[in-house]
Amino acid sequence: MPLGGTPAVKDAAYFAKVFNAVQEAICQDLILAGHDVSSGGLITALLEMCFSDPDVGLKTDLSELGNDLIQGLFAENHALLIQGKDESFESFFSQKNSLS
Prior knowledge:
Elements (H helix, E strand, L loop, with lengths): L11 H16 L3 E7 L3 H10 L18 H6 L4 E6 L2 H12 L2
């Protein structure tokens, strides 16, 4: 992306599907918190989500990032990190993902 440019949406239909699913999950009270992943990467977003409460810790499975954890944690890709309320959050998005 050129300096001062805006990120491109490569798949507008997918973007709309995800946006609508997140809005629906918020309305169903399935989401506790969310944070953008861009400046600083995934690691920064994860850590910033812990700053709001001194009694909050972080337990996460990084296996999906593959062998290059540095690339996965510090890549400044545009994304959304969401903290789900409980297991119903995962089943909600699994169902949404299976819909065409």
